[in-house]
Amino acid sequence: MTRGRAAPVLVLAGCGGVPSALDPHAPEAAAIADLFWTFTGTAAAIWLAVAIALAIALARRRGPRSDPMATQPGSERVYARVVASSVGLTLLTVLALTGLSFATQKAIFADPEPGVSLRLIGHQWWWEVIYEDALPLRSFTTANEIHLPVGEPVKLRLGSEDVIHSFWVPSLAGKMDLIPGHENELRFTPEQVGLYRGQCAEFCGWQHAHMGLLVVVEPREDFDAWRAAQIAPAAPPQDTERQRGEAVFLSGPCVMCHTVRGTPAGGRTGPDLTHLASRRSIAAATLPLTRGSLAAWIVDPQAIKPGAQMPLVPLQPDGIDPLAAYLAGLR
């Protein structure tokens, strides 16, 4: 297996299980799973009834009648009742399933008071995550990884900077589109601690398949500690190699696209890198976050994610390792 193909496998290995809408860990996802099984069971029962009726009809099939024009009023009345009953049952089934769908939708879009409110903005091809707070100083931005406290309602405000994307974490909630110039809202309550894989579910361009994200559900105390660390600016590098890497970062084109709070870098085009090393992956869950992956991404992002908006950055060979070291230390 090549490195490019092995990397996503390594990232997924950290997840608790394969992303599946049939493995719910939130009430909203459970409602969708229940609806799926209800529809599947009903469809299977109807198919079985039709198959049995067809088998009975074939078993009772008679040879050609002596008089093809002869009528059988008794049999025809029975057939008419069977057809009318089938139509009536079909109508009742459709109405029942429609009502169940509306009831499920109402439960999914209930409006509990959120414990965490954040904005999610889709880009080609990464996710910008903005944690909001009544105090502006406690708001911060990260990318491609969402942390949530277990058992608390979450409100996501969804938008897009370019094309239509779709947020989908199958085990936590249904799909919801991110539309340019329009804000959608999605609410759910994660009920189990774990790591959940998400994905863009709307074809949004060349690297749509590599627009993943991770959702980390953790106890409230762990979430509060993570949030406090994210609010703080980046710590200045202490060792010589990382200091040199910081100089490479600040003197090159990186500062035009990326933000590192606590430094002059304030670009808004690419992901915020202030606490990059606290994340589990880079390039929207395409590669695991390691120093080697960072170096490979810096040297040639187009080889890993063709069409990505990150350009080839002209760097001196002796500046690549210090820059990777600097970024790998942004915790």
Based on the model shown, name its key terms.
331 residues; alpha+beta; Immunoglobulin-like; 3 domains; five-stranded mixed beta sheet; 8 helices; elongated
Q: How are the elements arranged and paired?
A:
Layout: H1 3-13, H2 27-59, H3 73-108, E1 116-123, E2 126-131, E3 140-143, E4 145-149, E5 154-160, E6 165-168, E7 176-178, E8 184-188, E9 194-200, E10 212-218, H4 220-231, H5 240-251, E11 281-282, E12 287-288, H6 291-299, H7 301-304, H8 317-328
Parallel strand pairs: 1-5, 4-10
Antiparallel strand pairs: 1-2, 2-3, 5-8, 6-7, 6-9, 9-10, 11-12
Order of helices and strands: HHHEEEEEEEEEEHHEEHHH
Separation, N- and C-terminal Cα atoms: 31 Å
Q: Uncertain spans, ≥5 residues at pLDDT below 50?
A: 1-16
CATH topology of the largest domain: Immunoglobulin-like
Q: Going across the major beta sheet, what is the strand order?
A: 3-2-1-5-8
- The CATH class assignment of the largest domain is Mainly Beta
From the spread of the alpha carbons, the general shape counts as: elongated
In CATH, what is the homologous superfamily of the largest domain?
Cupredoxins -  blue copper proteins
* E-strand count: 12
* Count of folded domains: 3
